[in-house]
Amino acid sequence: MDTNLTISKGIFVYKTKNIADYKRKDGTDNVFADQLWYQSFKSVWTKVEQKIEILNDEMFTGLLKNLVDSVKSSFNEKVTEVPTKTLLTGINMPDHVALFSTLCKEIKKSVTPHIAVLHTEHCSTLKNLVESAVDQFVNKVHSYESDGDELKSKIRKTYCTFAFLQAWYESLHGSTNSKRKTRSVAQPLVIIIPDFENFNEKSLQDFILIISSYLNVLPIILIFGIATSVNAIHRSLPFHVSSKINIQVFNTQPSHLYLNRIIESVLLTEDCPFHIGGKVFQCFTDIFLYYDLSVQRFIKNFKYAMLEHYSAHSIMALCTFSHKVNRVVEQLSDDDLAAVKSLQSVRDHIEGSDNFEETLIQGVQHFYSYLSMFHLYLKCLHSLVHSLPNCPLGKQVRELYSTATSGEITQSEGYIEAFKLLGFHSKQELTEKVSGMCLILEDHDGDEIQDVLAQLQEHLVKLEDATTEVAEEPKLGGELMLSEKMNRLQLKQKLRELTRAPKQLSNYDKARAALIQYLQDVFDKYLRHPSSVPFYELFFFNNLSIRQVLLGSHRSAIHTALNNPSYYFHCDCCKLTDDGRISASMPDISILYKLHLEYGKLINLYDWLQAFVTIVDPYIDSGEEDAENRPVSPEVHARFIQGVADLEFLGFIKSYKRKTHVVRLTWGG
Amino acid sequence: MSYNIRKRLKNVVVESDEEEKDFEESASDYSPSESESASSSSELENSSSESDNSSHVESSKKLPTKFRQDEDHTYIIKSDDYFSNCTKKKAVTSNNKFTDVDTSRLEQGKLQDLLSSYNVTVKHNKQLKQVAVENRDQFSKWLYILKEGFNVLLYGLGSKIKILNEFREKCLGNLPVLVVDGFFPNLSIKDIVTGIVNDILELSDNPTNVYEACDVIINKMSSRRNLCFYMIVHNIEGEPLKNQQTQTLLSKLAAVPNIHIVASIDHISAPLIWVNTQLSKFNFVWYNVTSFLPYLRETSFEESSIVQQPKALVLSSLNNVFMSLTSKTKDIYLIMVKYQLEHGKAKHYKGFAFKKLYGVCKEGFLVSTDLALRSQLTEFVDHEMVKIKRSNDGVEYLVIPIDNNVLQQFVDKHSKE
C-alpha cells in the first residue's frame, strides 16, 4: 500500500527535483493566500505582531536598563573577580528567548559587539563550552552567510581556545597588559548563559576558573539567567569557584504583568478587531496561569483562535480594520452576503432592508464604535473597582473583560457587589476613583464621551459640596417619641421600629447615590454583552472546542475509542447500555482492552485468548463439553496476537518474565 | 453524566440526517447560542432551528474549517480503581499456558497473511470509511496551519501511517519531505539530521556533531526564506526518539519557520516526554484522527512482543547454522541442547557448567583438549547460539538463549538424523 515498506531503514526522503530548483516556485505562501478572509487575517495579525514586538522592546529595554548600565560600568575600576550579573527571570522559560534577544540587542547597541550566548546543548563538556564561546566571539564579526566562500573565512572550531581568543582580542584592541589605563575604553566580552540551571555544573566551574585566570588580559562579563532563585548559583558553584565571581542580582517583572500589558495594550484595543469570547478567553488565561505561565503560548493560542475564526467562513473577511470595510464589502459575493444576513445577531436586530450592503457597512462601523466604547468603559470600570476589598470583579482588566464577554456584566453578582461597596465609600475615596475615571475619559475625543465627562464632573462638584450633616426635623421626631414614658417592652418595640424606619440620608449620601446611579446607567449603556449588537459573530470567536486542539486530549481520545467505539462510529451495534459490557461487533482491540480490564496485575495469555474466542467466535453447536478444547482458528488467533501487540504498542501492557503472562501497566478503566 | 446525555442526543441527531450533521458542525461557528454550557436540549434545537439557512453551509465547503464537535469528553481517573487493582499482594492467574494452544507458533509472515485475508475493518467498514473521510477533510487545514508557524500533532487510536502517507501524497507531492519512522528500532537523531543535510539540503559538509549539524540546517533554512521542507514523523515518541537530547533537537528544528513537522503519537503516556521549553518550540496543534486501524507496521519491529516471536525464523536460522557445522561440533551442540531441555525447567537453572560439558565431550571423544572445546564454543557464541555466563564463584555456565519449545522442535528434527 505504501512505497516505503522496507524494514531496513527509518528515514525516507521524497524529493522530485534538486533543492536548488525549489527556489521561489513553491514559495512559502499559504494555500489560502488569495482568499479575501486570509488577507484580512494577515493584515490584522501583522499589526498585532508589530505592536507586540514594539511593546516587548519597550518593556524589556526598561527592565534591562539597569543591567546594561552595570555591564557598561563593570570595568571602570580595576576588578579582581569576574563581574557576574544574574538575571532572575522566572520560570516561564519559553518567554526568555524574547528577553535575551532584547538584552543582546541592547548590549550590542550601547556596550560592546562581543557577545556569546551559550546554550546547554552546545556545552556538554568543557571543550565544547570553550569552543562554542570563543567561536561566537571570533566568528560573529563575519556575517553568518552559509555560502561556500564565506565559510572559508571562518576559523575552525578546533582552533578556538582561550589563547587564541586573547591573541584575537589583542589584535583588535591592542594589548591590554601594556596600557592598563585605557582598559575602560575597550569593549568587554559578554558571555550570556540564559539557562543556568540546566548547565553542566562541572564544566561551568572549570570555565569560570579559566575565565578568572584570563581576567587580567580579557575583560569578560558573565550574565546568568536564573529561573528559580539566586540559591541555584551557590548550589552549583562551590566556594572556590564562587569566590572568583562578583555577583550582582537583577530582577525582571513576573510574567503575569507582562501578559496584562499585552492584553491591555494590544489585544483589547481598536487595533485588533478580532476578539475572543469570554469562555475562550477564560480558557486561555487558565492555560497561562495553570500550565506554563508563558506569554508566548498565550499569543500563539490567540493566533490559532484567529486562524480558526477567519477560516470558518469567507465572510470573516469583514473582521478587519474599519477603513478597509468598504473595500471588503465590495468584494463579497452574493452568497457571502446571504450568509451575513443569516447570522443570528443580524436576524435578531436588523429587519430586511433593500440595500443590505449599505446596512452592512453601517452596522459594522457601528460595531467598531461599540467596541471602542466597550474597551474604554471597561477600563473606566476597572479604575473604579480594582481596589475594592475582596475584588468582587477581579483586579485585572482581563478579568473584567472575561466577565463582560461571558454574560451581561451589569447583571453579574460581582458587579452588584462592587457597586454596593462603592456605595459605602467615603467622599475622599469616591472622589479619587471617579477623578481617575475622568482622567481615562479625558484622553478620548467624541461627543458622547465629552458629555459623560461633563456629567461626571458635575456630579463630582456636587459631591465636593455635599456635607454629611443630616436634616434636623426627623431626628427631633425620633427623640420626641422616645421621651414618652414607656415600659421596657414598649421601649424595645419602639427601638426596633426605629431601626426599621429608613435611615435618614445626608446630602452626601444623596449625591453619592445619584452619582452611582449615573455610573450604573453609563455602564448599562456601554457594557452590553457584545452578542446583543448586530454582526457580533464576525468579530468574536467563541468556540471552546479550540481547547482540545491546543491542549490535546490524547489519553481520553484513546480511552473513549477503546471503551466506547460507537462514539466515533456513530453506529447502533456497538451502543452500550453500561460501560462494562462487551459486544462482538466492536473492533478487536476494544474487545481485548475491555477484557484486560477484568484482570489484575498479571494477565494469562491463554485465558485472555479463550475469553476473546468466546466473544468473537462463540461456539453455538450443542457439544458443550469440548467447547473448551476446541482448536482456535488461526484467523482468530492472528487477530488476537495483533490486538495484543497493539495494546502493548499503546503502552497498556508489557511482557513479563514468565512468557505465558503479560503485565498490565495501567489501573482503572 | 450530562456528557452521556449529550452524546446520546448527538447520536440521535447524527442518525436523523447525515447532511444535517454536516451542517451542524459548520454552522456552530457562528451561532451565538452555541456554548459549552448549553444544555443538551438546546443543542438539538440549535441544529434544527437553523436548518433554513443552508446556503452558507455550501459556500463554506471549500474552507478548511472543521472542529470535531463531539470531543467534549474528558478522561477522569477513578482513584478507587487503583486500590482495587494494585493492592493485592500477589496477582493470581490460572496455570494455563499460552503455548498449549497448538496454533501458538504463528509466524510473522503467516500472521500478516492471515490478517490481510481477514479484513480487520469488516465490522464497521462503512463507518471507518466515514471516519477516514472526515480525517482526510482536514488536510487543507493542516497545510494552512503549518504555514502559519504551527506544527501538527496527530493522536487518537489507530495507525496513522496511512493518513500521513495520504497527506504526503496528496498535499506535499512536489515538496521535499523527510519521512521518519519513529518506531524503527535502529533510528537515531544522527540519521535524521544527516538525512536533512545530505538528502534534502544537499550540503557537502556534514558536521559530525549533531548539534552543529542542526545549526547548519537552521542557518541554511533561515538564510533561504523561500525554501521550505516538511518532516513527517511517525510516532515521534517512539523508543529511539524519546530521549531528551533528540526531542530538544527536533524541537529546535520545529521552531524554524520554514521547517514544518507533522507528527503522530500513540503511546498513552506520550505527551509526558516533552518539557515546557520543548513544547513551546514545537508549537503543536493537536488533532484527533482516530482511525481504529491496527498497528501492523509499527508492531512488526517490536522485539519484546512475546506473542509473536518469529519462532520459525529462529528455528530456521538455527538449522542453517547447524547444517554448516562439522559432525563433532553438531554433537557438542546437541549435548548442550538436550541438557538444557532436561534441566532447564529447574528453579534456579544456571546453565551448563563448562567443566561438566568438557567432561561429557571428552567421554564421547568429541574433543581432546579444553582449548579445542573453547574454540568450538566461540563459534556458537558468535552466532548467538550460546551465551557464556560467569557465576559468583567463578564457574562458567553455558546457556542457550532460545525458547525451550523451539529447542524441542530442533531436537526432534535432528536427533532422528
TrEMBL record, chain A:
Q: GO CC terms on record?
A: DNA replication preinitiation complex; nuclear origin of replication recognition complex; nuclear pre-replicative complex
**Swiss-Prot/TrEMBL keywords:** Coiled coil, DNA replication, DNA-binding, Membrane, Nucleus, Phosphoprotein, Transmembrane, Transmembrane helix
Kindly report the protein's main subcellular placement as a broad class: nucleus
* Compartments in which it is found: Nucleus
Residue intervals of the Origin recognition complex subunit 3 N-terminal domain: 20-317
One MF term in GO for this entry?
DNA replication origin binding
Q: Which residues form a coiled coil?
A: 446-473
Q: Which residue ranges traverse the bilayer?
A: 207-227
- Stretches assigned to the Origin recognition complex subunit 3 winged helix C-terminal domain: 555-667
Q: What does this protein do?
A: Component of the origin recognition complex (ORC) that binds origins of replication. DNA-binding is ATP-dependent. The specific DNA sequences that define origins of replication have not been identified yet. ORC is required to assemble the pre-replication complex necessary to initiate DNA replication. Binds histone H3 and H4 trimethylation marks H3K9me3, H3K27me3 and H4K20me3.
Q: What is this protein called?
A: Origin recognition complex subunit 3
Automatic annotation (TrEMBL), chain B:
Family of this protein = Belongs to the ORC2 family.
Keyword Repeat included in the entry's annotation: no
Q: Where is the composition biased (Basic and acidic residues)?
A: 53-65
Biological source species:
Photinus pyralis
Q: Top-down, what is the taxonomic lineage of the species of origin?
A: Eukaryota, Metazoa, Ecdysozoa, Arthropoda, Hexapoda
The UniProt keyword set, sorted, is:
DNA replication, Nucleus
GO biological process: any one? DNA replication
Q: Where is the Origin recognition complex subunit 2 winged-helix domain?
A: 345-404
Give the Low complexity compositional bias ranges: 28-52
GO molecular function, a single term: DNA replication origin binding
Q: What is its main location?
A: nucleus
Ranges where the Origin recognition complex subunit 2 RecA-like domain occurs: 129-289
From which domain of life does this come?
A: Eukaryota
Matching PANTHER family: ORIGIN RECOGNITION COMPLEX SUBUNIT 2
Ranges of biased composition (kind: Acidic residues) = 15-27
Q: Where in the cell is it found?
A: Nucleus
| Functional description taken from the UniProt entry | Component of the origin recognition complex (ORC) that binds origins of replication. DNA-binding is ATP-dependent. ORC is required to assemble the pre-replication complex necessary to initiate DNA replication.
Specify where the region named Disordered lies, as residue ranges.
13-65
Q: Name one cellular component (GO) term.
A: nuclear origin of replication recognition complex
Q: What is the name attached to this protein's record?
A: Origin recognition complex subunit 2
Subunit comment: Component of the origin recognition complex (ORC).
